[in-house]
Amino acid sequence: MAGGLMAYGPNESDPSWGWKRAAVYVDKILKGAKPADLPVEQPKKFELVINLKAAKQIGLTIPPNVLARADRVIK
Q1: What are the residues whose beta carbons fall under 8 Å from the beta carbon of 10, sequence distance 6 or more?
Q2: What is the pTM (predicted TM-score) of this model?
Q3: Euclidean distance between CA atoms 70 and 46, whole angstroms
Q4: What is the pLDDT along the chain (75 residues), one digit of tens a residue?
Q5: Which of 10, 27, 30, 37 has the most Cβ atoms closer than 10 angstroms to its Cβ?
């Protein structure tokens, strides 16, 4: 997260999500599966990242209870 204030999304280090999962879907489609018949998948873990440096630059104070819930805080 370069320069952003906050990010909430799939954990990038989770091997069960991302490009590898997309490749599995592409493989199934190329082998004849109908995209509408494939199950919708979601990541198992989401991550909240807060950039305190960016917050300080715009004069924003992040409440302590929000910081406590963050998976990662950039100082």
Answers
A1: 17, 18, 43, 45, 46, 47
A2: 0.69
A3: 11
A4: 567 999 998 877 776 677 778 888 999 999 999 999 999 888 888 999 999 999 999 999 999 999 999 999 999
A5: 10
